[in-house]
Amino acid sequence: MINGKLRDSLGQFFAWASSGLAISVCLGIIVYLFVKGHAQLSLDFLLTEPTASLQDGTSGGISTPLIGTLLLAVLGMALAFPWALATAVYLAEYAGKNMAVGLLRLGIDVLAGVPTIVIAIFGVAIFTIPQLGFLSSMVEGVEGTNRAFGRSFLVAAITMAVMILPFVIKVCEEAIKAVPHSYREGSLALGATKWHTVSHIVLPSARGGIITGVILGMGRIIGDTAIVWLTLGGTMRMTGIQPWWQPVNWISTLQNTGSTLTSYIYYTSPAGEGNMPEKAFGASFVLIILIVVLNLLTDFFGNYKNKVKED
What we know:
The chain is mainly α. It has 13 helices and no strands. The radius of gyration is 23 Å and the shape is globular.
């Protein structure tokens, strides 16, 4: 009995200690970034475009990297979500246990484990072929060269969609499987078809988990650097037809290069060419805040899902 109580006490102690350590590390990173970068935080920093300069006072802010981050996250998720949801529905509701389904699951697991740098290189190799030049632009001014530039928001978004696809599939599939079977049985007993049951009963019931998958996928896009650097480029400003924000120029903006907060941080850090660590710390703090907000939204929808179940 004593040994059992001792084991329980030790288990609780290590559980609390592990949780405390994780929270402390997270808070330590946030506080450190705030201390090092708070001097840069202002509306001017958030709303001004970056400018090529060796002086902090004239180097501008992070408006275009911030917009590029949000644009890439939304565009990448918009491309990945329909495929991810369709695959999750098939695996959870229609797929049986056979070799083809096993190979599909194996492919999803393998893709989830592929490093992002490998996916980025794959994207560069694919989207530089001339036939896909409409997604970016064609290389000009180089004699004997017929290839696409292979760097744009569209190219980066497609590559990001490939990267997050297995994670969104897994989350959506688990959300669909978590819907009680009694919901399906009741719908089918009333004469509804299988697809009507899935589309009108199962998917609405799994909405909270599906939204969680979307938010987590966007978080992965926001935090990636390798794919951004190789398939979007490192230009701090939008390089399409100017002004880039006018609706008539949106297609040009998507077909050209830009930046995100991660590429901006790399560029302004001592490892990049900018060597402005204060700007890098300020942008890092903004990036952390975005990720924290996304995780809070994930918790909110998770709690909302549980509340709906209880009701």
